[in-house]
Specification:
about 260 residues, Immunoglobulin-like, binds calcium ion, repeat, Cadherin-like_dom, membrane, Cadherin domain-containing protein
């Protein structure tokens, strides 16, 4: 930027100098052209940063050599245009969430968020999955504008206990950042125990000794923890049989018993 002031006086009373209001970014370089005319160039002297200062108001003063000196001033407004010099930054590197396995479709899982110090499209962020197993892509949807992850398909703890995926935030100028999302499913009691007759000795001779193994029953519950623990197994009607519990491998043996009552 250059400035040229006119002073119709001659000699010492003509234009002598330029001054610029004090500021950290701009300086004046005063040059002379043929005939002794002076002009000033406004020169950038330090890297600008719109994110810390986005506009300046400078005052340029021109002085003549008279006594007292006469001055003329001009205001210079400078607006700094944004450059995309900041990538998006996620508020967390890792988003770890726990989710009930029976969370209905459309449930919100987590909202990832990235900020960007730039302006306009340089700060406009689009979210997408950058690294995600196909199994997780089928189950979750990510809102490209708001970063919200929602349940897209019914989940099942018994099938998959958790998912890990990477989310990318990309600003309008193409700078990117990544974060990790870890979703752990919480087991719910959504499976009833299954009773399977593994083997049965039938018919049974009437003189079978007490304690003879009659049938092998397998009881299984697909849930975990207490939800999958078999707390009791019994015969509904009074029969001359009992079920002793062998905790190991949840196997139940039905054997002949001298007393006619069921046992836990
Ligand atoms: Ca940016
Ligand atoms: Ca910027
Ligand atoms: Ca389930
Ligand atoms: Ca379950």
């Amino acid at each position: 930027m250059w400035s040229n002031s006119e002073d119709p006086d001659l000699g010492v009373n003509s234009l002598q100098d330029y001054n610029l209001s004090t500021n950290p970014y701009f300086i004046l370089e005063v040059r002379e052209i043929e005939g002794g005319k002076k002009y000033a160039e406004l020169v950038l002297n330090k890297q600008l940063d719109r994110e810390s200062e986005s506009s300046f108001q400078l005052i340029l003063t021109a002085l003549d050599g008279g006594k007292p000196a006469k001055t003329g001033t001009a205001k210079i407004w400078i607006t700094v245009i944004d450059a995309n010099d900041n990538p998006p930054v996620f508020t967390q590197k890792v988003y770890a969430v726990k989710l009930k396995e029976n969370a209905p479709k459309g449930s919100s899982v987590v909202q990832v968020k990235a900020t960007d110090r730039d302006d306009g499209s340089n700060a406009q962020i689009n979210y997408s999955f950058s690294n995600i197993p196909e199994s997780a892509r089928q189950k979750f949807h990510l809102g490209s504008q708001d970063g919200t992850i929602i349940v897209k398909e019914i989940l099942d703890f018994e099938e998959t206990e958790g998912y890990v995926m990477a989310v990318e935030a990309r600003d309008g100028g193409g700078l990117v950042a990544h974060c990790k999302v870890e979703i752990s499913l919480l087991d719910e009691n959504d499976n009833a125990p299954e009773v399977i007759l593994a083997s049965l000795s039938s018919p049974i001779p009437e003189d079978s000794a007490v304690g003879t193994l009659v049938a092998l029953i397998n009881v299984n519950d697909r849930d975990s923890g207490d939800n999958g623990k078999i707390v009791s197994c019994y015969l509904k009607n009074d029969q001359p049989f009992k079920i002793p519990i062998y905790i190991l491998s949840l196997l139940y043996f039905l054997s002949l018993h001298p007393h006619c009552f069921p046992e836990l």
